[in-house]
Amino acid sequence: MNTIKSIILSACMAVNPIVISASGQTADKNINEYGTEWQWNEGTIEVESPQRAPGQKSVLGLALPAMESVRVGFVGLGMRGPGAVERFTHIPGVEIKALCDYEQTRAEDCQKYLEKASLPKADIYYGENGYEELCKRPDIDLVYIAPDWLHHAPIAKCALRNGKNVAIEVPSAMTLNDCWELIDLSEKHQKHCMILENCCYDWFEMNTLNMAQQGVFGEVIRAQGAYIHDLSPFWKHYWKNGENDKLGWRLDYNMRHRGDVYPTHGLGPVAQALNIHRGDRMKTLVAMDTKSVNGAALVTELTDSVCSNFRNGDHTTTLIRTENGKVIEIQHNVMTPQPYNRLYQLTGTKGFANKYPMEGYALGKQQLADAGVKVDIEDLSAHSFLSGKEKEALIEKYRHPILIKYGEMAKEVGGHGGMDFIMDARMIYCLQNGLPLDMDVYDLAEWCCLAELGSLSMDHNSAPVAIPDFTRGDWNKTKGYSHAFASPEQEEASMKKAIAFTESLKAKALKNKGKKSKSKK
């Protein structure tokens, strides 16, 4: 499924952004490179936002009837997809009905995970439009989407139009138009559209979120996140669309587009801590980037043609101000050599949390005592990180319930240290218990919009850009972000049914295997 429909016309195609006049003003209406209409309003760029169609209703807090079993189809089995297939074989109550990729061999190859788990084989789809037939199947509840970025939204739209719930790898949408279309389809069909942001399920982020929700840091007023990851060992391994594609889809995208094109790893966890669209909303952003040095040089090296207009800078910084006066800083850098860093940091009125490059918490003696942690150090202050003993005591007290439930199994199953498994298991848990998912289509739009809106800001001298209210006025109806849980009795009952369902699948697979063996004899 990893294919790019656009043909590379040159190694470094020039893209001409809209140029403003010396007075800083343009005509009343402007159109950017993505086809989005925008205008100036007292020095701030505002984009057009569509109204909710008549009869369409919000999916904020959407909960569907509980599913005893969840039937899944996977689309995109290149880099991320196979790992997802393998992880789902460890989740009770799941039936993998279909596997799809642009290349048939990659889809077929994932049958080995089902065979290893003693589960029935899945049906295979392939080719440029194979996913369309998969989405039409009436016996699929969830389409799990993991191809290249440009195909995330088109496949999701197809699945939603066919009445399927969707889970989409990151970034789930690359344009505002895609964001709005996914919102409208999710609202129209009342189906889940979840962004697969695994970093929201990492250990430090989950425990820190629990602390923030319990008031350990006071009021969180500033947050940082990032995706800083030198991809130099990986550029040559991204899927290429034929022998004339010298760059691969990911480098090609960075060459053609400006802005934070991969913002969700950094933004997702801090957005949850700041209750975005659950009592607060992102209101305005300002973005800027460095010039492109390593990016342009890499294209020149791979194509033997000088690249003079690499759109994206080597390092991108986006500042966001929320409705309630909080500030978020998000960075993106995949071009320069430096340690991996997601920058996750929360600054509160009474405490501080930081993950990269040094993991720790800074709390005063009184605040730590108020948090219910015994303090043995007389001169403890928030001027330095907590010692190992106090830190471990704090973590133990505020260990997130989801980590308690899935943490040990996640370490065994794996997937970026286990957070991928936690993400998948939580999604299935919510579907099986008829609960709202941890992330909705508005999260998807809010976290992905930095790409296009950041580009607008950068192309106009880092001007402020108003961030649309993707909830269309509902951002303050829910007070505080939370994870949904079933009652212990309901949870036990649904798990029994899930385990029984998986056992029946294994019995079916064993029976079919026996029939084939007799047939061969």
TrEMBL record:
Assigned protein family: Belongs to the Gfo/Idh/MocA family. Glycosyl hydrolase 109 subfamily.
Top-level taxon of origin: Bacteria
Organism: Duncaniella freteri
Protein name per its UniProtKB record: Gfo/Idh/MocA family oxidoreductase
Gene3D superfamilies, per database record: Dihydrodipicolinate Reductase, domain 2, NAD(P)-binding Rossmann-like Domain
Pfam family, one: Glyco_hydro_109_C
UniProt domain Gfo/Idh/MocA-like oxidoreductase N-terminal: residue ranges: 70-195
GO molecular function term, any single one: hydrolase activity, acting on glycosyl bonds
Signal peptide: 1-21
